[in-house]
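Hi there,

I know you've been waiting on this one. I reran it after we fixed the sequence typo, so this is the corrected version. Both the input and the resulting structure follow.
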Amino acid sequence: MQVYFDTSIGLSKKGRPCKVRQDTDAVFTEGGLTRCVPTVYCFKQGIIFDILTVVEETDMVEYFEKYKGWEKIADSLSDTQVQKIMQENPYQNVAIKGIWLNGEKEQDISFCSTGYLPLVREEKSRSMIRVIRAAYSDYLAEGACFFCQRVCVKTKQDFTACTLSSIRLEVDRKHKIYVLDEETSAAPGEEGCMQFIHPLTHVRHRVYIYDAKKLDAPGVFDGRLEYSLATAEIVPGLRKDEQLKFGASMSCMASGKKKGAVSIVGGQSGPVSVFFAGRKTEQKSRYGGDMQPCFSKPYWKEERESMSGKFCLTGLECLVEEEQIIDLFPDERPDGQERRGGSV
């Protein structure tokens, strides 16, 4: 397989193809799935390696059948509901947080991925899948449902001229989201309250919303957009590494682009996403519980009477797996033999 120093797994030919590779035959378990890194492709600019993951086809079929057509109703779902649907996908990329090559942490890392699902037959991807399957035939059985995550690391060191003796991956923590659907209102000087049953402990928690402050985004949408920032206090407190999720997003259409105190993605008569950042000053709790800042649903000024100060509790996020350190291969092979490598 000809590999170019480009994140894309496609068949585009940019620059010169790899001439030096180093076989690793690394196998590890992450996220409950067996992963494999067969080979590292070495370039003067850096390295590229593919993470292969074989997934049971029946699991993928069940997932697609369960959520068939969900994209058509995505606008009516909360961010938490969408996140839960994505999390239930049997395949997940390895969430690489950091990479060390020969003990040196690298900063310039990029990713992309593709896969083969027998139930989804896209004509344009068949040739690419055939190339990947042929290149890694020792690892991918004919007809197997698999995914390939390509990792591109730009380095100062030229690994075509020196030996790559170790690759260490730092994998980010994993969380699981549980969908909740509660709502309350809290205007400045008022207090709102809602409650939910913890999906794991079955303990009833109350969520108090207070110290609400009305804010606006003067540089966005002609200053028509408003929202509230408040304190949420959970009684009794949650377990360590658990936090509540609040629905604070909106969908809208807008033309033109304006800069302001919030981040805008989109414009030119297309969909727009707005992201708020806020921080509450430290304060004493009213009820002896855990506190966290929260945003209300954003709204237009003309909707102030009906929408102002609405806080929507959409989910509970729980830590399910700590950060993981994975050594793709140690500095020395246990059998004392040299690692395979050579020209491509």
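Quick highlight: DSSP finds four helices and 21 strands in the chain.

Best,
R. S.
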